[in-house]
Design brief:
531 residues, alpha/beta, six-stranded parallel β-sheet, 23 helices, 44% helix, binds adenosine-5'-diphosphate, binds zinc ion
Length: 531
């Protein structure tokens, strides 16, 4: 095996030099490629811009047969294929934008063994004629891009991804590589399970984007705040401004244009021609601002995006990370700026309540939101917090390149409060074998004899009523921040609270838990205005 690995290795490196013209592999690329080239399954977690494409393109070139790439980004397939062809790679795609003849030609090339890479949309792959076609050719590797789309709890769920588990059943000898830039450890596990890749090796790159400066400011008059930010720090720079609604996208783009910032709107309500025109202007021009809903940006590879601004709160930390990650792919200093206020919280809660999905779905959405809120409210380094959310506990030292590092917010010592919460969770689990959500934990801390407290005899616990010094809202703040710091976790469809590995250090009094001071009415005092 050693010999084979060495051969595979040198072939991979030769391909990197010869085809792509790069000197060396980056980070995890080499290990991933070696594993897949030698036939292993892999789940790869790498941030945007980390270099995921080579992880499947090189195995596809080194192994005999065609590499089949499953991607939901139909709009980008043509560009991807063109870019590969320019490098001399024999690439093709099959999706709904093609006419019959074009598709026929790609099929013929595939069957003749004349394709190194074939891009397919998941909704096409699952069709029997496509599967039949694939069975008649030779496949080197299956790459499943944007693999987090398989997660029903994630923000990008695509039902067609669920069918991809059949790839392993039909082609047990073809290695599969699932790639994503957005996954918590839980989503990572879900990918493995739903795609049926229990033996896959996991590769995880650092999510740190040191050149991005993270800043979250209290929202007062968001459009004016944005304009000020752009004028002061990013005059003439290319950037993306995210808004939640089409209406605010239109209004913000107009407002910026009126005030001398070249800006165009982008949202799903615009016709395809306008959208394509705005996107290509953004890619080609140097200093254009695109004001967009989240419909914009997935897979966009513009290296010199200098800022990403959020005028509305993203629904999840994954979303925030992915959107802000579009800044600074060239490694140059960039800013992730967000204005956040009470209205954001109210609006998002309402969306969750009135939205589609069952109760379990709502709970998960609420948990995603809570994590996002915690990032907004954190007292610690925002970068550290982000990395901790993705299970990459950063050094305790501050990054020096985020707003909480440069202007630390007011804090209080929440160590004792944290110990009370964690002890309650521990008691329930150890003494009763039970897990509960935040509401019950807080009722116990406050010594409330609710029907549910009585039903479970929770007034008999030694921790019953030990937390009367704080109000319910303050306990919610404590719990939210513990979740944010990774000292507490949410589990399962009921959102029950459970300990994490890090909880022990608090219970053993080995560490302090600083918490951000909660304004009496959270954030309202600073958010009034038009937000
Ligand atoms: P991702 O899909 O993870 O967002 P890409 O695969 O698009 O990232 O790669 C991001 C950029 O980095 C691309 O421009 C790519 O050509 C470049 N890149 C990737 N790997 C290397 C490497 N080993 N050496 C130099 N540049 C690389
Ligand atoms: Zn920091």
């Amino acid at each position: 095996i050693g010999g084979m690995t060495a051969v595979a290795d040198s072939e991979a490196l030769a391909t990197l030099h010869r085809v792509f013209g790069y000197e060396a592999f980056r980070g995890e690329q080499e290990a991933v490629i070696e594993h897949v080239v030698t036939g292993g399954d892999a789940v790869v977690l790498m941030p945007t811009g980390g270099g995921k494409s080579l992880c499947y393109q090189i195995p596809a070139l080194v192994r005999p047969g065609t590499g089949v790439v499953v991607s939901p980004l139909i709009a980008l397939m043509q560009d991807q294929v063109d870019a590969l062809r320019a490098l001399g790679v024999r690439a093709g795609f099959m999706n709904s934008t093609q006419d019959f003849d074009e598709r026929r030609m790609v099929e013929a090339e595939f069957l003749a063994g004349e394709l190194d890479l074939l891009y397919l949309a998941p909704e096409r792959l699952r069709l029997e004629p496509t599967l039949d076609l694939l069975s008649r050719g030779k496949i080197s590797v299956f790459a499943i891009d944007e693999a987090h789309c398989v997660s029903q709890w994630g923000h990008d769920f695509r039902p067609d991804y669920l069918a991809l588990s059949l790839l392993g059943e039909r082609w047990p000898d073809v290695p599969r590589i699932a790639l994503t830039a957005t996954a918590t450890r839980a989503t990572h596990q879900e990918i493995t399970q739903r795609l049926g890749m229990p033996a896959a090796r996991h590769f995880e790159a650092s999510f740190d984007r040191p050149n991005i400066q993270y800043r979250i400011v209290p929202k007062a008059d968001p459009k004016k705040q944005l304009l000020h930010f752009l004028r002061e720090e990013h005059a003439g720079d290319a950037g993306i401004v995210y808004c939640l609604s089409r209406n605010s996208v239109e209004k913000t783009a107009e407002f910026l244009s009126r005030n001398g910032v070249e800006a165009v709107p982008y949202h799903a309500g615009l016709d395809a021609g306008t959208r394509a025109a705005h996107q290509s202007r953004f890619l080609r021009e140097e200093g254009l601002v695109v004001v967009a809903t989240i419909a914009f940006g997935m897979g966009i590879d513009k290296p010199d995006v200098r800022f990403v601004a959020h005028l509305d709160l993203p629904k999840s930390v994954e979303g925030y990370y992915q959107e802000t990650g579009r800044a600074g792919r060239d490694g140059q200093p960039s800013t992730a700026w967000m204005a956040y206020g009470l209205n954001d919280v109210v609006q998002q809660r309402k969306l969750i309540q009135s939205g589609e999905g069952d109760e379990a779905f709502r709970r998960r959405a609420a948990a995603h939101l809570d994590a996002m809120l915690a990032l907004c409210e954190t007292v610690r380094c925002r970068r550290g917090q982000l990395l901790a959310y993705f299970g990459q506990e950063a050094d305790a030292t501050a990054c020096g390149n985020c707003d909480t590092c440069t202007a630390p917010p007011e804090t209080w010592d929440g160590t004792v409060a944290a110990q009370k919460v964690l002890s309650t969770v521990v008691r329930l689990q150890r003494e009763r074998g039970q897990k509960f959500g935040a509401v019950q934990i807080i009722d116990i801390l406050l010594g409330k004899r609710t029907a549910k407290v009585i039903q479970f005899d929770h007034d008999q616990l030694s921790v019953f009523g030990i937390g009367e010094e704080l109000a319910e809202g303050e306990w919610r703040g404590v719990i939210r921040q513990l979740l944010a710091q990774g000292l507490l976790a949410v589990e399962g469809e009921y959102g029950t609270l459970v300990l994490t590995e890090a909880s022990g250090s608090v219970l053993r009094r080995e560490r302090e838990v600083p918490l951000r001071k909660e304004p009496k009415k959270p954030v309202t005092s600073r958010s009034g205005g038009s937000g």
